[in-house]
Amino acid sequence: MDAATPAAETLLDLHRSGRLAARYPEVRALLDGLDDAELVRAGRLLARLDVDEVRAAHPDVPTVAVTVTGHGTLAPLLPALTAELARHGLLLHARLAPFDSYVFDLADPDSELYRAEPDLVLCVLDPMVVFDEVPVPWRPADVARVLAEKVDLVERLAATFRATARGTLVLNTLPLLRRHTAQLVDLASRAELGALWREANARLLRLSAANPSLVVVDLDPLLAEGSPACDPRLTVYAKAHLAEPLLAGYAREVGHLARNLAGQTKKCLALDLDGTVWGGILGDDGIDGIEVAESYRGEAHRAFQRVAKQLGAQGVLLTVVSKNEAAAVAQALREHPDMTLREDDFVRVVANWAPKHDNLTELAGSLNLHPDSFVFVDDSPFECGLIRHALPGTAVVQVDAEPALHLVKLLRDGWFTTRQLTAEDRDRAAGYRDDLARQDFRQSFTSLADYLAELAVEVELGEAGPEQVPRVSQLSLRTNQFNPTTRRLQPQDVSELLDDPYARVLTVRSRDRFGENGLVGALFLRRDGDLVQIENFLLSCRVFSRGIEQACLAAVLRHARAGGASAVLASYRPTAKNRVVADLWPRHGFAPAGEDGDAIRFRHDLHDIPAVPEHIRLTDRIGVDAA
Amino acid sequence: MNSLDDFLHLVTDEVGIPVNAEDARGDLDQVAGWDSVHLLTLLTVLEQRTGRTLALPDVLAARSLADIYDLAVTA
Lengths: 627, 75
Hints:
heterodimer; A: alpha/beta; Rossmann fold; Aminopeptidase; 3 domains; 8-stranded mixed β-sheet; 5-stranded parallel β-sheet; about 45% helix; globular; B: mainly alpha; Non-ribosomal Peptide Synthetase Peptidyl Carrier Protein, Chain A; Acyl carrier protein (chain B); PP-bd_ACP (chain B); ACP-like_sf (chain B)
């Protein structure tokens, strides 16, 4: 076959020789080089793999269990979904519900769908959900009636899902097709149909505001990009009511949701400068010569800068990794009259002549992040290739000589997709800039103890309430390092813990002389007779190494003893990224207590409780009987 | 796509199901791993490759891969 790229050829060779399962970890990098059409072809091959065989060969590959249900023939979604998850290093474990079984699947708490306990349930809706039940002849009022019934039904199904399942239910808006609007010959009725259709879609979209288990994918922006909604032949002959390109776009959105649920949301955007952030070459053209506004190219770069700024305002950390003279870059960002992005918009600006993968690795380290958390944008194929090769977990957005497409390429993937924005997101960049001030301050002291004493760290340990659910869930999904068990909690999981009489969720806030850190940690406790189990302890990477964890554990252990507990249990499940907490429990007086599968268990007998470090002022807002 | 052999390669590489000349002559139900959804994929791919529009009702009613090949080359 005429495979266009070497990566596609390699995938095909692996498929033909039956080695695709054995070499699955290489698939992610291979998919990175494919265009959309090749990705779908690769998805067809990957969808044929035996999931159990891949898991047996590669137990470390994270699996996402997805049940696909809905109204029409949905098997054509599976190849695209397989490929989109594989792009993120995830293995799709798919279950396709029987044809048109979504009402039964979701309404019956005993259904096979619920028994399978999937991470994600995709209930794919299409326009025929409505038009299958509209009589002939019909008026807009007939459609309004069926639409209302269907949205009511879906709302009830989503409520049952919320009460029954711990995963996430994904719905979608219904495309309005010309084959339906054009059946009305009078324009007034057509307008009426358009209005009531969109009101129903708006109702669907709003359902997720009241139901934390629910995500509604808006198909309109995908359709507006030119994706056909339906193939008239396949809808008639095969009951496949949504066209494959639309399903592929939908699968991409779901892929980013799955990545978020797997704790792999990107946190940082690293931008090249010459040809990416601005037109021209700073070193050759000078500050006055680079294009950031007013000219044709300048306007395209301005549009791109505005998008970066917009992302930065929502908690994405903006950084620069550029081959340039640092002083010239600083001057351009500070003094160019038309520059949209300024020094203050970036948490770090790295401009030097070192190789970019080294710069990116060092930058990640200085932010206490992993290079996997980065999205790297560059117009140089060489630099992009270098990062792909050296840091395969870093997402690479390769832009080119057409700057008007930079923002399209950056936004083509929902790299920073998250369920809900929190106050911490909006303040994140400022927090990281405060960290720079902390580092400078740190360098003025000869000992860590002197520094900590002057830092004036305050920690507040409190009880989580409903208003903290989004942030606590987000911490569990974002935190990879200080996360001893890496148990991910979606918002509804946190809500359930708050309602559970044996469980407690404690929040950790901190501040110091440089400002608020916000809600930076959480402890999950469970009472079992006279034992207290610390199910997990999360701490943001921004506040490591200040004794905050010791202050929190001291308080929890003290409360456990006061509440009559005989011991506190904890565990550590090693991952590639959480080595920083490998000795967390022994360091605070916990003794090893055997193994539980891949986890190491620890036990604290409550005799020798560590003290709150002297340099920390702890405000303990949890009740005496806490834990 | 100039021969039945090309066609079988296409099924193997695009649909992901390895097939040989014997499979091509037998009933579709007897082809290991085959189901009706693969037929939809094959239709899409055939139309892309040949640049011709196939008569879907005929293809959907075909009983063997060889029948589908005949429809594709005579369309």
